[in-house]
Description:
By secondary structure, this protein is mainly alpha-helical. The protein has helices spanning 3-12, 16-20, 25-34, 49-60, 69-90, 97-105, 111-120, 135-148, 188-206, 222-235, 240-257, 262-271, 276-286, 304-317, 322-325, and strands at residues 155-159, 166-169, 174-178. It has one domain (3-132, 183-350). 51% of the residues lie in helices and 4% in strands. The protein has a three-stranded mixed β-sheet, covered by helices on one side.
Amino acid sequence: xxxxxxxxxxxxxLKVPDFFTPLNFAREKEKFFNRExxxxxxxxxxxxxxxxxQLIDKIGRxxxxxxxxxxxxxxxxxxxxxxxxxxxxxxxxQASLSLASSKLYQYSFSAxxxxxxxxxxxxxxxxPQQSTLSAPEVARKIRNCLQKYQIGSWKIxxxxxxxxxxxxxxxxxxxxxxxxxxxxxGSLDTLLAHEVDVHxxxxxxxxxxxxxxxxxxxxxxxxxxxxxxxxxxxxxxxxGQLSKKLHALKYVGVWLAAKKTxxxxxxxxxxxxxxxxxxxxxxxRIKRGWQDTSRPGFFAREGIYYQGMQEIKQYLKGGGKIEKxxxxxxxxxxxxxxxxxxxxxxxKRLKKYKGI
Length: 356
């Protein structure tokens, strides 16, 4: 097995949720709502510290000699990204988790973006009329959307899990719809813009790339991926202002969490219109990885939606091509060498895009 194959195998078995999903989530949620001023005390699965430290050293010695310059760049960045994933896991529960997750997800605080987010967090709560679709109905709507794009190879399944509405598994060409799907701060059109028109279409287009390395998610692509998804949901969907408000609230929530407790972050979301379950879920995702959530600190991934969206807007204002954004699962920094595949699929809602 060469270094490229071994790295791929390691990444397939290195799943962040395996180490960042509390074992006592339901019990701590119940305590939170039954005890005034209580901050959850989460317990997580054990981490094989010695094995992970050895793994960081091992992949650091991987060689990709014989590959093209671009391929070596991609693979070396994948090594660095993999090392950062491991380091973030090793920093779980420690004050250094904020910095470790910021490096992995390329989150950086910006006073200018915070100002924009604080403004957008004040948008009016205008809910779309349709918000009562069941999970099977949503699955049918997604299937109809895929058929309009002539995508027939993806599978849609219903799930009993409660911690998401829609989950996309690009490598498996699979979409999961939670039977417990909720519509607070969301609409069907927003969901389709975010999940299908970005996550699915980018994967479908990437699969058309001639170089196998470009068919997979490129290193550090996630901020651009989620930023683009937020951009379409916020500016090109029914109920988009509501989606923009939620993304803005999350960005401000990360900023607050750097100094505040879980309870403080929850109260912020609650005061801005989120119901108790969504407010708790958003606070948890920002405090994910902490055992004692009364401690200051954040999990940076929740800040990249709004930050990534601002970067997408700047890219387009600077003359960037829409087609490049959908050519592969890549970050903005890699778009210069990504070819636009033949028969690329661009979201129908962007056909008349003329800037914002």
